[in-house]
Amino acid sequence: MDPLTMALIAVFLLYWMIVSYLKQRGFWEKHNISTWGPVLMIRTTKGLDLMDKAARPKRFWRLFANIGIVLMFIGMIFMFALVLASDYALVQSFLDGNVMEPGKYNELKNIFLIPGVNDFIPFTWGLLALIITLVVHEFSHSILARAEGIRVKSMGILLAIIPIGGFAEPDEEELFGGEIDFEEKNKQSTQSIQSNQNPTEFNDMTASIEEIRAHEALMKQKENQKESQSQSDKDSNAKANKNSKPKVIATKTQRSRILSAGVMANFCVAFVAFILFFGPVLGGIASIGSIQVTGVDSNSPASIAGLSKDMVLVQINGQNITGSDSINASLQNVTPGDTVIVSAAYDRIITNYTIQTDPAAQNSNFAGIYIHSVNAGSPAESAGIIPEMTITQIDGVDIPGMNEFSQMLSEKNPGDTIVLTANSPDENGNVQPGDHGKEISVTLGQNPADASRTYIGISYSSGPLHIGLLGFSVGQFNAATYLDVLRELPSMLFGLDFSNLGDSLKLMLAAWIYVMALPFFGLAGEGFSGFSGSMMQFYAPVGWAEPLGIGIFWIANALFWIAWLNFYVGLFNCLPATPLDGGHVFRAMIQTAAEKFKMEEQKAARVSQKICGWLSIFIFLSFLFMFIWPYIGKYFLGLV
Question: What is the 3-state secondary structure (H, E, C) of 327-393?
Fold first, then answer.
């Protein structure tokens, strides 16, 4: 762990200790500040007048929320279908005897959308987007509450050393007062009736004259007490009504509008940010090249000339570099000892480097294959091959790329032993590009799908191309194609073709899922976190964005994460599970539907409450098993 991270953790722990100490001393309660772990909820009533003014166009906000109810219902179906699909995949994997290996996609820290903690969400842009998402969501609830006449008690910020969001507090009694706990009410009514009954019933047929007279006197006394109490209650209620306003209770429709407003606001912000990101912002960005330096051999001609990692190759000896073929073509007539001019860009500045090649070097290139994962129990695992290795040779023969590696394996038979030459990253995650690595003997197995074919058990892609004559390695990233695919996403999201409606809807659904998974899987399996780091080296601002310089990438990153987090949080809140907004709206929908089928109001409320409760438990367990199954699945399979 680096010193900066350790220092941040130490500061946060100290802050938490101070918060806990002041809580025990009653400091936060005295100043109307609530605590939730290390998070402070700082309330104020200032700004409520501004919220009232914002809520004045009531017809607009009600229309806004009515559209939100429709979108929430669509999002509810979409998210619940995803939950069912995940459950089906989990059950199917269990029946097939397969368990997905634990990885970064199901680590606990990556479940929550916490910037800087989640591996896929950058701290700066993620924090900015998260604050905007929470503020927009919470304040939309409050504006709709005021538009519907529901009181807002306070507003404020959430603080955890730094502000992490905002909140507004509608009066929960007014907002949820209509959701009566009918069971408790009936219980109280039953107890009241029982308390008013005599322990023994009076029978006037068998009672004596004295008992009848005593019973009549008792009943008259009770009647007088009841009339007196009734008059007292009337006087008390009249006095209370004179001095206070009647209590407002939101109807089911009003409550649904208020709860849908947060989701609708998130979707609106996501829509606007996505339009800006995919439209003018991406239109102001162009690719510089597609070949990037991934490593430079120490004391090599390239290192002496000044080439370094992350530079993007533009030309070699005046020939444009677009891929490995163009690299080979540019060096075809170069012999060891010749001078080579390499044009490379760093931070969008192109520089020419004159490289005097080593007379003893060889004009040969090899790429090898990069290992992404190794299957459990496979020949590769038994031989000691691990992820992030790069295999450069088979039986002493260089591997130019993926196709050649596959062809070499196809010429072998199950049971054959091959010698792979592979290198591993050092403690810093770097691989020496010119190092072929160590030799590993692997006995090939039988392919489960075809016993006549070989099986090694690895997932791989082409590794960096090592240019032996110059002493550095490069990797290819199709920057222009990547940018084009990003620009085409809006047409996939909204491109409904009525002439082929079925396939068009499937494509739209796949595109929406794709957008949700973009930070995790990207366009090529690597995840897209925006234009930052080494990826930013491939692009430069053009056209209207050229005067902004690096600022266009800041705008792009901010818009992308604001759009994505608002979209994701909005969809998640659509789930029909309490305490999410979707759960409360779903419960109101069920109760309304039951009442339309002539069901008594109390019974409809009980039925909707039970349905929503069981559905909430099902969704919670689905998410739980989704993330813990990779860790416990193999033990269950061992017991079956």
Answer: HHHHCCCCCCCCEEEEEEEECCEEEEEEEECCCCCCCCEECCEEEEEECCCCHHHHHCCCCCCEEEE
3-state secondary structure of 72: helix
Assigned token pair, 94: 């269990």
Q: Hey, which bits of 203-356 come out as E strands?
A: 285-287, 291-296, 312-316, 319-320, 339-346, 349-356
Q: pLDDT tens digits for 10-66?
A: 887 888 899 888 888 888 888 878 887 788 888 777 778 888 888 889 999 999 999
Are 142 and 152 in contact by the 8 Å Cβ rule? The answer is yes
Q: How does residue 190 score in pLDDT terms, banded at 50, 70 and 90?
A: very low
DSSP character for 533? G
Phi, psi of 75 (to 5 degrees): -65, -35
Q: Is the dihedral of CA 301, 307, 313, 315 positive or negative?
A: negative
> What's the distance, CA 485 to chain centroid?
21
Q: Does the pTM exceed 0.85?
A: no
The residues near 419 (Cβ < 8 Å, ≥ 6 apart) are 394, 395, 396, 439, 440, 441, 442
Give per-residue pLDDT as tens, 89-107: 888 877 777 766 666 766 7
Q: What is the 3-state secondary structure (H, E, C) of 449-477?
A: CEEEEEECCEEEEECCEEECCCCEEEEEC
Q: Which residues of 129-162 are buried (b: 16+ CB within 10 A; e: fewer)?
A: bbbbbbbbbbbbbbbbbbbbebebebbbbbbbee
- Sequence-distant (≥ 6) Cβ neighbours of residue 269 within 8 angstroms: 132, 133, 136, 562, 563, 566
3-class DSSP state for residue 88?
helix
